[in-house]
Specification:
The chain is of the alpha+beta class. The chain has helices spanning 232-276, 314-317, 339-348, 364-403, 425-429, 432-458, 473-494, 501-523, 531-551, 556-578, 591-608, 616-639, 644-669, 676-696, 707-711, 725-746; strands at 4-11, 20-25, 30-35, 37-40, 46-49, 51-55, 73-77, 86-93, 104-108, 114-119, 126-132, 140-145, 163-167, 170-176, 184-191, 212-214, 220-228. Among the domains are: 4-62 and 72-200 and 215-229, Sandwich (Jelly Rolls); 350-553 and 642-758, no CATH class. α4 runs parallel beside α7, α7 runs antiparallel to α8 and α7 (473-494) packs antiparallel against α16. This is SIDT1 protein.
């Protein structure tokens, strides 16, 4: 048991010109202070205290002295030309050493800080220091310092040594034995003279001309409990759980693929048997299918009968069955050079009832190559975006480790398990699901792509007019985006704070945007946006997100400009969607002619046909979509949410859900059906997203507030004693995104045996 001594001094003098100086000399150090003790706040405000109490640094017993002997010299001096009365009291602390799993209550104030000693038990390698208080204010600081004298226990020097946190009602610091060679440390508690660092306001008594306050009552009751942290075996269990949970998705995919393979082989055997009995119809003349009657769909060959001998469109007639491979000499500038397409696409795309054959007239090889640009571009973007992010978060973590300032990063400190240089390894490990499921989705898409290519090599040219055109470039891009979301979310959680939250959301914007593009591409393969324009649009969104982080907190002008961009952008995009990309504001017309044409279109389609638009379904979707987006714009303009990145993400997600719901409704209206696999994926997506959002809204920290206020929301781990609510959100959101991607991949498998001139466009 280590003994400690506390010195209490009091002086009635208020003369700041002649303070009383106290110097305490010990075996290994000197401690000094003055009375009145002066603390400085914002704007040159001062807080003076006439009562001061300090704990002296305990000295270890030596062979020359008995354990209870401590030699202390106390010098009292003043330069005052008159006598000053003071009181000096030296007491021995009975409860200086804290015990494991035992709560200890005490009181502290700005002029009377407290610190205590803790020694690691033999079987404990890591502990969590939990500090709680019933009162929010006064603002306080909890510090962990090595056994070095003097101990920094005043407001102006507590940040000079060790690890520290600001605190209102709750604080938690994880301490590891390896960081303290002596296997012991001091826990220091300092009360700040002002509360602005914890989100409080400046006391009203010092407003105006008064800039000096005497003996302000700022006493705080605190309770500290030191509990053992988790053992290394829990780390191993958590890692096994994380990887095995998502490896089960790989196993499930292998089982589904094997079952599908068995069914395809049985159908192929049945088809050959039918051919041998003289059916006269070769399997090679049947349509391409990525579906079986049971709904298992991986781009295999359907052996069901179909009518042959139908007429092909002129560009399709030029192709042969073996010409499906991409050519490296074709450029994107060749996409629209076929004169027969240029001559009639304005007429075709303005028909009241469009079918897929009207919007899939371009050469499949060139269109497929166009969509593969999405894949290569997102890899390039990911590399150039991720490398600076990794460098920045490493710098953040280094600053935290070197300075000991744990107010830089907004962790859930009650469930932050360090590993190596990382302060919260559990928040990083929980993102492994995004990377593993993103890679699995790439494998599933690759298998579909390979099977589809094999099917194309086995079929004749007539089967090219069946089903949704198979272009996998956007699916590959979605898989890469899901993996990068895991990487960047892990980077954000290295040191989560206000400045780098955009890293966690950037690829979420891209995922939502790519999903909308894929939905649109499904029935509009010839007129979907190019990769360059799509990624340029995402770049604009990310730039707006950065501006929102910088200016979105208080600047009204930013919200006015953003709301205008949002509203006019929605209208412009709606116009392009409504007219299938044939409404152009450029060309040979003069400027006056452009505006005259715009007015004529507005008059014809919005006034004359207001009661019955030419494209009713599209008009309903666009009206609802614009109302939703205008509502978001008005909400942002009125409330100006601080979390601008989440605000933009909400806009993307709502638009995606709206479009997906419209697509499914129109699909069912068109007498199309949902096969078992897409139906299962839709149900799984809804269930998993609901569970994920429940954990997402269990707020465990918030960089919209001060670090001390954010710690009030911290909560213990809920899964394996290692993962918190936000980690569960990571697990479930990865699975939900994976199922969402499978919905888009399998949604139209029922159309693989339907002619394209029978598939409606909506």
């Amino acid at each position: 048991q280590v003994d400690a001594v506390r010195v209490y001094v009091n002086s009635s003098s208020e003369n700041l010109q002649y303070p009383v100086l106290f110097v305490v000399r010990q075996q290994k150090g000197v401690l000094s202070w003055q009375v009145p003790l002066i603390f400085r706040g914002l704007y040159q405000r001062t807080y003076n205290y006439q009562e001061v109490s300090r704990t002296l640094c305990p000295s270890e017993p030596t062979p020359e002295t008995r354990p209870s002997d401590q030699i202390i010299f106390v010098d009292v001096a003043s330069m005052a030309p008159f006598n000053i009365a003071y009181e000096l009291l030296v007491t021995r602390l009975e409860n200086f050493q804290l015990e494991t799993n035992k709560a200890f209550n005490f009181t502290a104030s700005p002029s009377q800080p407290q610190y205590f000693l803790y020694k690691f038990p033999q079987d404990v390698d890591s502990v969590i220091i939990n500090v709680v208080s019933d009162a929010v204010y006064p603002c306080s600081v909890v510090s962990v310092q090595d056994i070095v004298c003097p101990v920094y226990d005043l407001d102006h020097n507590v940040e000079f040594n060790g690890v520290y946190q600001s605190m209102t009602k709750q604080a938690a610091i994880t301490v590891q034995r390896k960081d303290f060679p002596g296997e012991q440390f001091f826990v220091v508690f300092v009360i700040k003279p002002e509360d602005y660092a914890c989100g409080g306001s400046v006391p009203s008594s010092i407003h105006g001309n008064v800039n000096r306050t005497w003996n302000l009552q700022r006493t705080k009751n605190l309770q500290v409990t030191i509990v053992p942290s988790i053992k290394k075996s829990v780390y191993v269990q958590a890692m096994f759980f994380s990887f095995l949970s998502f490896l089960s998705f790989y196993l499930g995919s292998v089982v589904v693929a094997f079952v599908h393979y068995i069914r395809v082989q049985r159908k192929a055997s049945a088809g050959r048997l039918t051919s041998e009995h003289g059916s006269g119809i070769m399997t090679s003349s049947r349509p391409i299918s990525a579906s079986t009657p049971e709904g298992s769909s991986y781009g295999a060959i359907d052996e069901s009968s179909s009518s042959g001998g139908h007429q092909m469109s002129s560009p399709e007639r030029r192709r042969t069955a073996g010409s499906d491979t991409d050519s490296s000499v074709e450029e994107e500038s060749d996409f629209d050079t076929m004169p027969e397409i240029e001559s009639d696409k304005n007429i075709i795309r303005t028909k009241v009832f469009l079918y897929l054959s009207d919007l899939s007239r371009k050469d499949r090889r060139i269109v497929s190559k166009k969509y593969k640009i999405y894949f290569w571009n997102i890899i390039t973007i990911a590399v150039f975006y991720a490398l600076p992010v990794v460098q920045l978060v490493i710098t953040y973590q280094t600053v935290v480790n070197v300075t000991g300032n744990q107010d830089i990063c907004y962790y859930n400190f009650l469930c932050a398990h360090p590993l190596g240089v990382l302060s919260a390894f559990n928040n990083i490990l929980s993102n492994v699901g995004h990377m593993m499921l993103g890679f699995l989705f790439l494998l599933i898409v690759l298998r579909r792509d390979i099977l589809h290519r094999r099917a194309m090599e086995m079929k004749d040219i007539y089967t090219l007019d069946y089903g949704i055109p198979k272009h996998f470039g956007l699916f590959y891009a979605m898989g890469i985006a899901l993996m990068m979301e895991g990487v960047l979310s892990a980077c954000y959680h290295v040191c989560p704070n206000y400045s780098n939250f955009q890293f966690d959301t950037s690829f979420m914007y891209m995922i939502a945007g790519l999903c909308m593009l894929k939905l649109y591409q499904t029935r509009h393969p010839d007129i979907n946006a190019s990769a360059y324009s799509a990624y340029a649009s995402f770049a604009v969104v990310i730039c707006l997100a950065v501006l929102g982080v910088v200016f979105g907190k208080n600047d009204m002008w930013f919200w006015v400009v953003f709301s205008m961009i949002h509203v006019f952008g929605s209208l412009a995009l709606s116009t392009q969607i409504y007219y299938m990309g044939r409404f152009k504001m450029d060309g040979p017309d003069s400027d006056l002619g452009v505006f005259r044409r715009a007015m004529m279109v507005l008059y014809t389609d919005c006034i004359q046909q207001c009661s019955r638009p030419m494209y009713m379904d599209r008009m309903v979707l666009l009206i609802v979509g614009n109302l939703v987006n205008w509502s978001f714009a008005i909400f942002g303009l009125v409330y100006r949410p601080r979390d601008f990145a989440s605000y933009i993400l909400g806009i993307f997600i709502c638009n995606l859900l709206l479009y997906l719901a419209f697509y499914i409704i129109m699909k069912l209206r068109s007498s199309e059906k949902l096969l078992p696999i897409p139906m299962f994926c839709i149900v799984a997506t809804a269930v998993v997203w609901a569970a994920a959002l429940y954990f997402f809204f269990q707020t465990l920290s918030s960089w919209e507030e001060t670090p001390a206020e954010s710690r009030e929301k911290n909560r213990p781990c809920i899964l394996l004693g290692f993962f918190d609510d936000h980690d569960v959100w990571h697990f479930l959101s990865a699975a939900a995104l994976f199922f969402s991607f499978l919905v888009l991949l399998t949604l139209d498998d029922d159309l693989d045996t339907v002619r394209r001139d029978k598939i409606p466009v909506f």
